[in-house]
């Protein structure tokens, strides 16, 4: 059974970055209406990512020798938290900064690090993640996309889906089968860095209900990969992916997806919105949740800093966090509807409509609610 | 320090307050032996400054003791008495002896009626009334009433205060803190007991913990208990640069734990089948603390309002800014 999560604080040197980030955002954040800012880490703006990179804030945890900022998890926490709270369009560099860069730094060889990491840190090279497939979602070990040895390189065939930003990205880190058969499950999987400009790669954007195209279908047909496309060890893909996912479950991005909506509503209440006891109480409820969740998320980060691997605790924060993110639009809709004779500002209504419509995805991406609860049950010794 | 205190508090209540003791007191038995054991431990003076003969601890330091009281459903006002003694010390008055129940604050012109948890086990009640808090002898209570005994209503025909405290302490905040800590402790115990039971109880040829539907429920239970414990830790921190409890942190903590309590009680009773409502199985002693705790010293609805108004009336910061500046720990 997992134990207590003791209170932790963001160390002062990391906290000190907050004012700098706010200052930068005041000046650099494009003037976007709230329903655009509500895209949160789905908002794409390559220019903004490059400006952030020029400020030194892309490749946050990558080493200096590779052009990174060499910051620790807490510094990253503060920067990401401020970016998300402001609704900055971070999606262009998001995956490279958060997952692909650290993965290459950890498992890649020296040549791969020297090639990819400086480009990621300069905001020039964007990455996407190719895990899910049409018949592979929660059961990730069932991937059927295949890399077969071909001369000194590899030949890739298969199909990925849900691939966020593939249409804007230069590379995909794909989890594929490199030996054996699907029944071998975790054995025989590998990760490849796939250059998406190679012949045989076809990227088709999938429109979402808001008219945006974030995710894609990516088809590989006889794609010739060089030998150095393999990242980490052949056959070690499962272990690498597990390590990668553990890091992405408990950060501010699992708490703040509806923050722009919440703040847009608060702004209205502060100016001319109806300050009824019910709306005051709802705000208090949301703040009580946010305070507790954030403290839990920071406590998990301090475990990561201490070199532990708090997988169960991270799953727990993600499940509670996404539930909170989903509560916000539902509850604010009720609050707005409680005063039928008041007309909320258009921006607030548009932000609500967007967040409400996209909220179901919060508890699917990065591991579904049921899968996370299964992990918690395992952590508690129930399975 | 934390562990040391947690261990000795755990040891104390394991010895002095096993379920049969908690049950007997709940049924009208004497709490004297339990109280003497607690008194002997010195915990009751934990919040009293060292200069006044106490341990000089901060609320956050004493959290392990209150969690332990909740874990064992100790039917005596441990946190309340600690707070009362600290307030008397601050006012340079001699603290009353024995357990002191804490009544919910009432208006200065209200009737002399009050409800207080664990009143039957206490010789005295501190009744916050208007600006002052008056120490009154506990009036006689009729019969025994298992289900309502944990929060008895008292009436004083001709109140004769033994002592009075003027200002200084926000007793609604103080009482809310004592309750929420107890609730967090009770939830810890509920989690352990429920997980153990699910591993032991066999239906359809296997432990019910093996069913995915049960596992998912227990995961939610775990989440809420962890959230509750975190909320209790936050609520125990003083405002920046101060020693006393922070009303907004207590507001957030009491409200979050109140919400957790609803889910925790429902899931635990569900997993235990109907066992928890029998006199024999102590689960109801734990969930009773959750239900009483929610009701006492302001429920979610009350504290949510306090928190929401503080945010709207304060500087125009974002929700994150408010949480980070007003509710996050400044030091661990
Ligand atoms: C916005 C968004 C962006 C995404 N971006 C990417 C990306 O960039 N790259 C990428 O690879 N993937 C991406 N995904 C895909 C995401 O990882 C998958 O949606 C997720 O893993 C779930 O897979 P699925 O959609 O196939 O659902 P399924 O696995 O088919 O699940 C359907 C339902 O069945 C439940 N279920 C499944 N198995 C079990 C079980 N064993 N027990 C109980 N219940 C179960 C699930 O919880 C869910 O409710 C993205 C998804 C979203 C929503």
From TrEMBL, chain A:
Stated family: Belongs to the acyl-CoA dehydrogenase family.
Keyword check for Oxidoreductase: yes
Protein name (record): Acyl-CoA dehydrogenase family protein
Residue span, Acyl-CoA dehydrogenase/oxidase C-terminal domain: 235-380
InterPro entries: Acyl-CoA_Oxase/DH_mid-dom, Acyl-CoA_Oxase/DH_mid-dom_sf, AcylCo_DH-like_C, AcylCo_DH/oxidase_C, AcylCoA_DH/ox_N, AcylCoA_DH/ox_N_sf, AcylCoA_DH/oxidase_NM_dom_sf, Mycobact_Acyl-CoA_DH
Source taxon at top rank: Bacteria
Annotated Acyl-CoA dehydrogenase/oxidase N-terminal domain residues: 12-124
Cofactor needs: FAD
Keyword Flavoprotein applies: yes
GO cellular component: plasma membrane
Species per Swiss-Prot/TrEMBL record: Roseomonas acroporae
Molecular-function GO terms, alphabetical: flavin adenine dinucleotide binding; oxidoreductase activity, acting on the CH-CH group of donors
Residues annotated as domain Acyl-CoA oxidase/dehydrogenase middle: 128-223
Pfam families found in the cross-reference section: Acyl-CoA_dh_1 (PF00441), Acyl-CoA_dh_M (PF02770), Acyl-CoA_dh_N (PF02771)
Alphabetical UniProt keywords: FAD, Flavoprotein, Oxidoreductase
Phylogenetic classification of the source organism: Bacteria, Pseudomonadati, Pseudomonadota, Alphaproteobacteria, Acetobacterales
Automatic annotation (TrEMBL), chain B:
Pfam families in the cross-refs: Acyl-CoA_dh_1, Acyl-CoA_dh_N
Species the sequence originates in: Roseomonas acroporae
Keywords annotated in UniProt: FAD, Flavoprotein, Oxidoreductase
Entry similarity comment: Belongs to the acyl-CoA dehydrogenase family.
Hydrolase in keyword set: no
Molecular functions per Gene Ontology: acyl-CoA dehydrogenase activity; flavin adenine dinucleotide binding
Source taxon at top rank: Bacteria
Record protein name field: Acyl-CoA dehydrogenase family protein
UniProt keyword Secreted present: no
Domain Acyl-CoA dehydrogenase/oxidase C-terminal per the UniProt entry, residue ranges: 180-304
Cofactor: FAD
Acyl-CoA dehydrogenase/oxidase N-terminal domain location: 5-78
InterPro entries: AcylCo_DH-like_C, AcylCo_DH/oxidase_C, AcylCoA_DH/ox_N, AcylCoA_DH/ox_N_sf, AcylCoA_DH/oxidase_NM_dom_sf
């Amino acid at each position: 059974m997992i134990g207590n999560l003791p209170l932790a604080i963001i160390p002062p040197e990391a906290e000190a970055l907050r004012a700098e980030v706010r200052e930068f955002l005041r000046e650099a954040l494009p003037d976007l209406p709230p329903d655009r800012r509500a895209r949160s880490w789905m908002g794409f703006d390559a220019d903004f990512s490059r400006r952030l990179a020029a400020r030194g804030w892309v490749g946050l945890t990558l080493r200096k020798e590779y052009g990174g900022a060499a910051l620790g998890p807490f510094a990253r926490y503060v920067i990401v938290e401020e970016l998300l709270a402001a609704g900055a369009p971070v999606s262009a560099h998001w995956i490279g900064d958060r997952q692909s860069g650290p993965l290459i730094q950890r498992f890649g060889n020296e040549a791969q690090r020297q090639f990819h990491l400086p480009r990621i840190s300069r905001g020039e090279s964007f990455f996407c993640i190719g895990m899910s497939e049409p018949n592979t979602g929660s059961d990730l070990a069932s991937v059927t996309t295949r890399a077969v040895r071909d001369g000194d390189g590899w030949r890739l065939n298969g199909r990925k889906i849900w691939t966020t930003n593939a249409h804007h990205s230069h590379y995909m880190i794909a989890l594929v089968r490199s030996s054996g058969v699907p029944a071998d499950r975790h054995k025989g999987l590998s990760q490849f860095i796939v250059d998406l400009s190679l012949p045989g790669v076809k990227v088709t954007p999938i429109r979402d209900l808001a008219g945006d195209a974030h995710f894609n279908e990516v088809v590989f047909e006889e794609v010739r990969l060089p030998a150095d496309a393999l990242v980490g060890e052949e056959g070690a893909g499962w272990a690498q992916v597990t390590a990668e996912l553990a890091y992405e479950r408990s950060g501010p991005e699992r708490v703040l997806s509806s923050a722009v909506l919440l703040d847009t509503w608060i702004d209205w209440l502060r100016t001319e919105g109806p300050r009824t006891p019910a709306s005051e109480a709802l705000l208090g409820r949301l703040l009580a949740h946010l305070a507790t969740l954030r403290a839990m998320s920071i406590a998990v980060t301090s475990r990561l800093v201490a070199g532990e691997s708090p997988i169960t605790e991270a799953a727990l924060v993600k499940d509670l966090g996404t539930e909170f993110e989903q509560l916000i639009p539902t509850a604010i809709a009720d609050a707005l509807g409680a005063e039928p004779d008041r007309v909320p500002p258009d921006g607030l209504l548009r932000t609500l409509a967007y967040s409400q419509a996209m909220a179901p995805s919060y508890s699917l991406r990065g591991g579904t609610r049921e899968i996370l609860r299964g992990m918690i049950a395992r952590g508690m010794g129930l399975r | 320090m934390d562990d040391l205190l947690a261990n000795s508090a755990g040891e104390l209540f394991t010895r002095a307050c096993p379920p049969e003791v908690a049950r007997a007191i709940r049924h009208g038995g004497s709490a004297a032996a339990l109280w003497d054991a607690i008194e002997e431990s010195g915990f009751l003076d934990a919040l009293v400054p060292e200069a006044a003969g106490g341990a000089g601890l901060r609320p956050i330091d004493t959290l392990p003791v209150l969690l332990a009281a909740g874990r064992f459903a100790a039917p005596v006002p441990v946190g309340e008495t600690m707070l009362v003694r600290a307030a008397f010390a601050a006012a340079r008055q001699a603290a009353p002896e024995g357990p002191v129940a804490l009544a919910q604050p009432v208006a200065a012109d209200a009737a002399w009626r009050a409800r207080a948890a664990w009143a039957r086990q206490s010789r005295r009640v501190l009744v916050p009334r208007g600006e002052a808090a008056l120490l009154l002898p506990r009036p006689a209570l009729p019969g025994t009433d298992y289900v309502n005994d944990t929060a008895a209503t008292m009436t004083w025909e001709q109140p004769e205060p033994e002592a009075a405290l003027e200002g200084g302490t926000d007793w609604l905040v103080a009482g809310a803190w004592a309750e929420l800590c107890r609730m967090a402790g009770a939830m810890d115990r509920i989690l352990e007991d429920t997980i153990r039971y699910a591993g032991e109880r066999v239906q359809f040829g296997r432990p019910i913990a093996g069913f995915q539907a049960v596992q998912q429920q227990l995961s939610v239970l775990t989440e809420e208990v962890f959230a509750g414990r975190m909320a209790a830790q936050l609520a125990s921190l003083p405002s920046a640069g101060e020693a006393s409890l922070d009303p907004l942190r207590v507001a957030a903590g009491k409200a979050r734990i109140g919400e957790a309590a609803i889910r925790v009680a429902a899931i635990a009773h569900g997993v235990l089948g109907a066992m928890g409502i029998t006199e024999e199985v102590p689960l109801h002693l734990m969930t009773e603390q959750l239900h009483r705790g929610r009701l006492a010293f302001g429920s979610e609805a009350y504290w949510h309002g306090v928190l929401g108004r503080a945010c709207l009336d304060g500087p125009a910061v974002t929700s994150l800014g408010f949480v980070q500046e007003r509710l996050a720990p400044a030091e661990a």
